[in-house]
Amino acid sequence: MKYDYLIVGSGLFGSIFAYEMTKAGKKCIVIEKRDHIGGNIYTQKQENINVHKYGAHIFHTSDKRVWEYINQFTEFNNFINSPVAVYKDKMYNLPFNMNTFYQMWGTKTPEEAMAKIEEQKREAGITEPQNLEEQAISLVGPDIYTKLIKGYTEKQWGKDCCELPAFIIKRLPVRLTFDNNYFNDRYQGIPLDGYTNVIEKMLDGIEVKLETDFFEDRKYWENIADKIVFTGMIDQYYDYEYGRLEYRGLKFETETLDMENFQGNAVINYTEREIPYTRIIEHKHFEGSDSPKTIITREYPATWKPGDEAYYPVNNTENNTIYQKYEEKAKKEENVIFGGRLGTYKYYDMWKIIEEALNTVEKEMN
Ligand code: FAD
Ligand code: UDP
Prior knowledge:
This protein is an alpha/beta fold.
């Protein structure tokens, strides 16, 4: 065999794996079906602004090992994500905090806000939440659920909130403080030179073949390395033997505007069902670029079909049951390792991908 590892996918998972194994003296080759490296964290400089080509990517973690690891490749700025939600003619702070409660109900103290939430919860009468709708109502009550969660979630996932798993909404903090930081994590920021620069450093000196899809010449690629690290869709790898997993797609509509400041914030969510996009991001606000122009992207959720980019796994019970069968099969493989969001069918943020990649490397070394 010519290589120790064939790594399918140059996203964060594949790139960390390739970097660590090359450092350990192994010979790696990375193949990537897109025409650039980095997967979904790819950024491209336009008008002196780092454009997040596949949607807003804010790095956040509470894991010191992960934070120190990623800081080898870049410095981070001090960006704190504080998105604002628009519902009809009003704006609300996110995540759900004292500002949101004031805007929603006029409550001014934690005691008043808590009393209001308790009253709302009592009226709804949910004791053991079974799905996203019940979980959301039992966290913040029906007012916030109806205005800030239901419409956004149903367009994001293309499903009724009753059919979605509760864990999705538990990603969002609920706080009785005036704190608009979207994340609870200890560390947060955006790489000073964009994410692509991070991946370039990881892949420096490693053979990378762009616009190369593993499935277009599977036999060839299977015989080029002792082991395969696969970060694409696991159901496709197994030729859909146990059925197709479901994914959620996205469409991005990006515009350059001849003005300095379009919306005054990096992320604004549109929570009404009737507005077809979920959020508008204004890229310069992630890094405070002084460009005289600005670039914005509208993010439209989309039905996923084979051939489209698979952005999100849809981790409901049906899909997770199918995934378990693939996982069982994957565990028995001696020479194939599955990793990343699509390889393990998990709704993972970047920090979790880094943790998983480092754990996989450690296991491989032993
Ligand atoms: P990917 O980035 O998907 O990389 C997989 C790579 O494999 C891709 O480049 C793909 O083209 C390639 N590939 C797939 N199949 C093949 C094949 N057959 N042959 C060759 N190549 C193939 N995380 C955060 O921490 N903070 C955020 O703010 C955040 N925002 C997000 C916003 C959006 C809209 C999305 C979709 C995700 C967001 N994430 C965020 C999650 C983050 O993108 C992922 O955690 C991370 O990018 C996953 O890395 P990965 O390597 O697993 O996957
Ligand atoms: N969410 C919502 N309203 C919002 C923002 C998020 O209801 O204004 C819900 C929605 O269900 C979403 C989930 O919270 O899928 C997680 O949001 P997050 O911002 O973490 O999603 P991501 O950035 O991964 O798309």
